[in-house]
Amino acid sequence: MNETVKPIRPAEPFTVPVEGMTCASCVRRVENAAAKVPGVDRSAVNFATKKLTVESAEGFSPEALEKAISKVGYEIPPAAMAHALREAGMLPEAAEHAGHRHHHDHAQHAVHDVDAHSGHAGMDGDHAAHQHEGHAGGHDHMHMHSGEEGALKRDLGLAFVLTLPLFVLEMGSHFYDPFHHWLMGVIDTQNLYYLYFVLATVVIFGPGFRFLKIGLPALLRGAPEMNSLVAVGVLAAYGYSLVTTFAPQLLPESARFVYYEAATVIVTLILFGRLLEARATGRTGEAIEKLAGLQAKTARVERDGKVLDVPAGDVVAGDIVVIRPGERIPVDGTVIDGQSNVDESMISGEPLPVEKAAGATVVGGTINKTGAFRFRADKVGRDTMLASIIRMVEQAQGAKLPIQTLVDRITAWFVPAVIGLAAVTFAVWFFIGPEPALTHALVNAVAVLIIACPCAMGLAVPTSIVVGGGRAAELGVLFRKGEALQELRNVGLIVLDKTGTVTKGRPELTDLVAAEGFAGDEVLRLVAAVEAQSEHPIADAVVKAAEAKGIAVPKAEGFEAVTGYGIRAEVEGRAIAVGADRFMEKLGLSVEAFAEAAARLADEGKTPLYAAVDGKVAAAIAVADPLKPSSRAAIRALKDMGVEVAMVTGDNRRTAEAIARQVGIDKVVAEVLPEGKVRAVRELRMGNAEILHEGQHGTLPVISPLEGEMSAKPTEGGKDGSAGEDANDVPAQHPPLPCRASPPQGGRSAGGSASAFRTVAFVGDGINDAPALAEADIGIAIGTGTDVAIESADVVLVGGELTGAVSAVSMSRATMRNIKENLFWAFGYNVALIPVAAGALYPAFGWLLSPMIAAGAMALSSVFVLGNALRLKTVKIGETR
Questions:
Q1: Using one digit for the tens of pLDDT, what is the confidence trace for 516-567?
Q2: Which of 143, 179, 538, 866 is the most exposed, fewest CB within 10 Å of its CB?
Q3: Are strands 320-323 and 372-379 parallel, antiparallel or unpaired?
Q4: How many domains would you assign to the chain?
Q5: CA 298 to CA 278: how far, in whole Å?
Q6: How far is Cα 37 from Cα 465, in angstroms, rounded to an integer?
Q7: Is residue 481 a part of any domain in this protein?
């Protein structure tokens, strides 16, 4: 009975290994079989990883999928199917369909044992089973690959040992007359043929049986593939030799030759090629293995008043986890007490440890350095950041690029075409070829069958994707969609959100200029005391700056917020006021002494606050959202790569211009709402709406806010005189600067003068960036941003730095160039050598290609493609510019 499965959350695509796929022709066969299963919306096979990805819908039956794949000659391991369904969010009962019940019961039994041992009554059995199975799934996959490689080594060793004497005896007697005469004196020709027969039979039906058991059934089903070519070629040479050995009277005397050595050398060389291919393929998956290796094996948790060591997979949300110096953090969570420094280079790429204290978040897989702390587990299992990264890398490596569809169509017809061409070759040589015609016909037809290599064509694209995607992940770039990997190489314009993308996204105290007679730290202490009573983000920045300097912040009394002006209070008996220049004027105080500092801050897009102590202006203070350290270098690198850069922000125009000037951005759209960012992306793609603004601080190319939906709404005053802001843009100054949505005076329209861009990417991190991420040809999300932004993106920059965008473009270009090289080799190899194998050069040069040489060339062609793809593992950013 077929059981259908229902998701316990919105079902995600799931991926399962498919055993038995040996060449590119298998890809479309598996995909077509899966596509016909009820409840399968879409199916895609990655030949490099030998995995099938399925998007399922209501009515999907795992058993029906397994049967459909089995019917066309392949197999999905039942345990792998159960694991994949859980990972995709299907009901645990899905694992209990036919053939899976024992596996699931065993997992459940193991969970109850762990529960009893730990005494933790709140343990979720299904969750723990899911965790153990998840780890097992990865180990099973590595074990399966290792087992296949071991079997190939064993078969190759036996084939080589038996083929070597056969090859030496047969070929030696052809090329060295003294050896031939000696051999004929030891053994006569007929008995020598009997010896060849024994050796060849063991090779072909021993190590070579793997080609026969897959290739012949596929041929009989009318769906020949790579093994079919090898099987037909080997059996043709072997069968002809059998006739010569046991019924020579059936052949003309001039055609009585044996080709046992050709058949065995073909088997041996192809096994050698398969072994090299297996080793190279194993290396392509190293990126995921490295990521999986970052997962902690055990965790120390507090349960029922005891501290217990449990498997990391048994940690559940809400557990209190104890971390000691040097330990790897098992899951994501929030520090509740203690203090330490944590190496987060896995996430950010930054080598310096990050300080952690109460309230800070920690990420599973990162390493604690010196101190000890406790944290509450918030995200466990498949919900952790590390699990999400691994999942996205797997999705990227399993992606099918648009170019792959064309390759698959060609390879689907390639094997039948080669068999037809071999038949034509045999017929031409048999009927119009020179004597011995039958011998020439057989040799050339076998050479055509053996030299053809659909594997090279099938591996050309997916191996580059797997290796390139893995290298990108090492650089902190996750391609969530295959189309992004292919199209990002063509990007002509990258549009950046400002806050959290170009800047850090959180205000910091950047300047404090003290008046004569006042000490900077003392003024900061008093101002922080007043700001500590405010809930504004800028107030928090001032307090944190004081704490960072080790300044003890006293308590303020009589706090008052003067809307639109500033705040004031009394600290240790001293009257403190903090606010804009108009607040100082209202208090009858002059800020002329700070005119020079105010002009400098204005150039930087900062509006200064002023602090008054006991009726005297004591300091000018600026709080702003500072640039990320890598922003300037990243934007310069993008320009060096020929990519134009623009910035779109909801912040005010003056601040946006200043930030753009500092990082070298030429085009700015400011004061826009989220839907305005969508319009900006559209207009920038068309090259429209450019305004050359001649501001008071020099000429800067600026794109003015567009009319209609891109115009900013007037902001409302917030607490203590702050301005209402775009949900994603932290105020760059305090109190507010009026928004100006109209084009600046002195501007001249140059709309439409710029050329349109074929491909536009948008980089953002906030909820309000999601529409623009979806509108752009390629959406790139900052990995430290919101889940909404990440879900809307095609590419995720894990580290949160703009240098990730440089890496993304570089890896896209390097990967696509590598794919083109592979395709050129794969198609060029077949186009050039198949005619040679058929004897095209014989009329002009008298050259014929031996089947043994054909086997060697075929074995090495796939290895070349894999070796070329593996070069992507060494790509360094900057090499691809």
A1: 999 999 999 999 999 999 877 788 889 989 988 999 999 999 999 888 788 9
A2: 143
A3: antiparallel
A4: 4
A5: 32
A6: 27
A7: no
Our CA angle for 752, 754, 759, nearest 5°, is 105
Q: CA 821, CA 339: separation in Å to the nearest integer?
A: 52
Q: Which of 533, 450, 447 is nearest to 836 (CA)?
A: 447
Instruction: Record the tokens describing residue 79, joined without a space.
Output: 């345990």
Contact 676, 710 (CB under 8 A): yes
Return the DSSP state at 724: P
Indicate whether 494 and 640 sit together in one domain.
yes
Place of tokens 């096979």: 45
Q: What is the pLDDT of residue 143?
A: 52
Q: Which of 779, 797, 815 is the last residue of a domain?
A: 797
CA gap 731, 580 in Å, rounded = 14
Buried b (16+ CB within 10 A) or exposed e, 242-272: bebbeeeeebeeebbebbbbbbbbbbbbbbb
Asked whether the predicted pLDDT for residue 223 surpasses 80, the reply is: no
Average pLDDT, the chain: 78
Asked if residue 775 and residue 749 are part of one domain, the reply reads: yes
> 813 or 768, which is more confident?
813
pLDDT of residue 11 exceeding 50: yes
The β-bridge relationship of strands 760-764 and 493-497 is: parallel
Given its phi and psi angles, is residue 701 left (phi above 0), alpha (psi -120 to 50 degrees) or beta? Answer: beta
- The residue type found at 314 is D
Pairing of strands 306-311, 748-749: unpaired
Q: Which of 264, 263, 271, 48 is nearest to 151 (CA)?
A: 271
What values do phi and psi take at 766, rounded to 5?
-105, 170
* DSSP for 392-459, written as a single string: HHHHHHT---HHHHHHHHHHHHHHHHHHHHHHHHHHHHHHHSPSSHHHHHHHHHHHHHHH--HHHHHH
Question: What CA–CA distance (Å, rounded) separates 429 from 444?
Answer: 8
- Using the 8-state DSSP alphabet, how is residue 734 labeled? S
Closest to 611 in 3D by CA, of 641, 633, 581, 631:
581
SS3 helix, strand, coil % of the chain, rounded to 5? 55, 15, 30
Single out the catalytic residue among 155, 314, 408, 497: 497
- Domain boundary (144, 179, 201) is at 144
Per the domain annotation, does 830 fall within a domain?
no
Among candidate residues 559, 558, 602, 555, the one with its CA nearest the CA of residue 580: 602
Where in the sequence is the domain holding 368, given as residue range(s)?
296-380
Q: Would you mind telling me the total number of residues written for the chain in this entry?
A: 881
Contact 116, 104 (CB under 8 A): no
Residues near 247 by Cβ (< 8 Å), separated by ≥ 6? Answer: none
Question: Residue 18: CA atoms inside 13 Å, Cβ hemisphere, count?
Answer: 35
- Parallel, antiparallel, or unpaired for β 556-562 and 566-571? antiparallel
657: CB partners within 8 A, 6+ apart? 605, 668, 670, 693, 695, 700, 702
What band does 351 get if pLDDT is binned at 50, 70 and 90?
low
Do residues 78 and 138 share a domain? yes
**Which pLDDT belongs to residue 93?**
41
Phi, psi for 454 (deg, rounded to 5): -70, -20
Rounded-to-integer distance, Cα 354 and Cα 341, Å = 5
- The answer to whether 497 is a known catalytic residue is yes
Residues 498 and 519 in one domain: no
**Which residue from 340, 331, 342 is spatially nearest to 372, judged by alpha carbons?**
340
Q: Are strands 298-303 and 306-311 parallel, antiparallel or unpaired?
A: antiparallel
Does residue 526 contact residue 576 with C-beta atoms inside 8 Å?
Answer: yes
> Residue 769 pairs with which residues in a beta bridge?
none
* CA distances in angstroms from 715 to 71, 673, 726, listed in the order given: 65, 11, 9
Whether residue 399 contacts residue 209, with contact meaning beta carbons closer than 8 Å, is answered with no
Name the percent of the chain lying above pLDDT 90.
27
pLDDT digits 0-9 by tens, 612-643:
999 999 999 998 888 888 899 999 999 999 99
